[in-house]
Specification:
This protein is an all-alpha fold and about 110 residues long. The protein has one domain. Helices cover about 85% and strands about 0% of the residues. It is rod-shaped and about 125 Å long.
Length: about 110
């Protein structure tokens, strides 16, 4: 009897069928467990990405608010500089290079 015939007889025997069924069951169970682990890992990755998106949107909102505040502060400072420049320009020719205490305070108020 050849080796192939012996293997065939073993595979078709009750013991062979039980071994084959057990091996297929183990393989299917291990495959299902791997798929479940991969699905869990992907859920965790998706949850982390969603949290990152939420954090990024909040950071974007904060940055926009800060940009608006800085723009308003810059406009206010520019108005102060323009007012001080106009006041200094209105001084007589000889007094333009001298700054009074009030002028210095006005300059310090500009942020």
């Amino acid at each position: 009897m050849t080796a192939l015939a012996t293997l065939w007889r073993l595979a078709t025997s009750r013991l062979g069928l039980i071994v084959i069924a057990a091996a297929l069951g183990w393989w299917w169970g291990a495959s299902s467990a791997r798929e479940a682990c991969e699905a869990d890992r992907l859920r965790e990755v998706i949850a982390a990405m969603q949290a990152d998106v939420v954090a990024a949107r909040e950071a974007e909102r904060r940055a926009a608010r800060q940009a608006e505040q800085l723009a308003a502060e810059a406009a206010s400072n520019q108005e102060r500089v323009d007012a001080l420049t106009a006041d200094l320009a209105s001084l007589p020719e000889g007094d333009r290079c001298r700054a009074s205490g009030d002028d210095v305070r006005r300059l310090r108020d500009i942020r």
